Amino acid sequence: PQRFSRVLRVGGLKPSLMEALEAGGALVLPDDDRDDMLGRHADEIVAVVTSGRVGVKADLMDRLPALRAIVHFGVGYDGTDADEARRRGIGVSNTPDVLTDAVADTALGLLIDILRGFSAADRYVRAGEWTTKPMPPLARQVSGSRVGILGLGRIGGAIAHRLEAFDCTIGYHNRNVVESSPYQYYSSPRELAAAVEVLVVAAAGGPETQQLVDRETLDALGPDGFLINVARGSVVDEDALVEALQSGRLAGAGLDVFAHEPEVPDALRALDTVVLLPHVGSATVQTRAAMEALTLENLNSFLADGTFVTPVFQPDQKETR
Ligand code: 8YV
C-alpha cells in the first residue's frame, strides 16, 4: 500500500502539502456528503492531517474508530477538541518554533503601522490628497513606548525580544509567571492593559482564552491605547472592540486574526484607525516551507513508530501496541 493510504486530509492546506499527501495515497474528507467516503474508508484511517483552524471535533472522532493521530499544519490547534482527543488516547501534534519569527515580525509590522499610521498615510497619498488636503495628524512614537504582551510563550517572547531593540518598557500577563523573564508581570489582562499604551495578543486560542480581552480590558487600555492581535480572534471580544474603536474609547487596532474568518465586520473595514490583515502571520515562503516539512515529519514519524517529533501530546502507547 502507498505510504499515506491510512491518512485522511481534513480541510485545505498549503497546495504543495496537499500534493505530497495525495501522491502518497492520502484520502480527502469531502466538504459535504461525507457518509459515502467514511462508509468505505473510516475503519482504515489512523491519522488525520488538518490545519489548526479546521481541526477535528468529537463528532468526526466518533466516525474514525482507528484514529490515533491528529497532525496540525500550524502551531495553533484550537479547531481540534484536544481534551476529547486526549481522553481517547489520540495524539496531537503541531508546528511550533518554525513560525515564531514570522509571526513576531508580523506583530511588529502591525504595531509600527498602526502607531505611525502608515497604511492610512498610504491611502492618503494614493487618493491624491497630498496636493489637496492637510497632512495626516501626527502619529504616536513606537520607540520607548510601553507595551504589554498577553501570552509570553514562544511567540510572545520573540515579540518582546524585538521590542527591546525599540527601548520599549515591556510587561506581560500569562497564565503562569515566567520565572526566567525580566519583564514586569501583571496578574490580569485588565491590569496589564491599564499599565501600557499597546497591548499585543499572543496567547493560544481555545476555551481557556475565550474573550480574555473583554470590554473592561479595552477600556483599561483607553482612548490613547492600541490593540494588536496575531493570535486568534476568539481571544478578543470583537463586538466590544468594534464599539470601542467606533466611539474613540480605543485609539486603534492592528489585526491579523478575526472572530469569524474570513468574515471581517463591515464596521472595522470602515475605520481608518485599524490595520487589517488576512491571517498572514506565518505566510512567508521560508516559514510555510518549514511548517510543511515539520508536518510531514510528524506524520512520517507517527507512521513509523507511533510518536511525533513535536507533540502537543503523544498518542497513547498502551493502546497502539
Ligand atoms: C497558519 C496559524 O496560517 O500556526 C497557526 O496557528 O494560525 C497559521 O500559522 C494556519 O494555522 C494554517 O492554516
From TrEMBL:
Which parts of the chain span the membrane according to its record? none
Q: Which Pfam families match?
A: 2-Hacid_dh, 2-Hacid_dh_C
Q: Which family does it belong to?
A: Belongs to the D-isomer specific 2-hydroxyacid dehydrogenase family.
Under Gene3D superfamilies, the record lists: NAD(P)-binding Rossmann-like Domain (3.40.50.720)
Q: Which organism is it from?
A: Rhodococcoides corynebacterioides
Output the InterPro entries linked to this UniProt entry: D-isomer_2-hydroxyacid_DH, D-isomer_2_OHA_DH_cat_dom, D-isomer_DH_CS1, D-isomer_DH_NAD-bd, NAD(P)-bd_dom_sf
| Keyword set, alphabetical order | NAD, Oxidoreductase
Q: Residue ranges of the D-isomer specific 2-hydroxyacid dehydrogenase NAD-binding domain?
A: 108-281
**Residue intervals of the D-isomer specific 2-hydroxyacid dehydrogenase catalytic domain:** 13-307
Its name, as the record gives it, is: Lactate dehydrogenase-like 2-hydroxyacid dehydrogenase
For the keyword NAD, the answer is yes
The yes or no answer to whether the keyword Acetylation is present is no
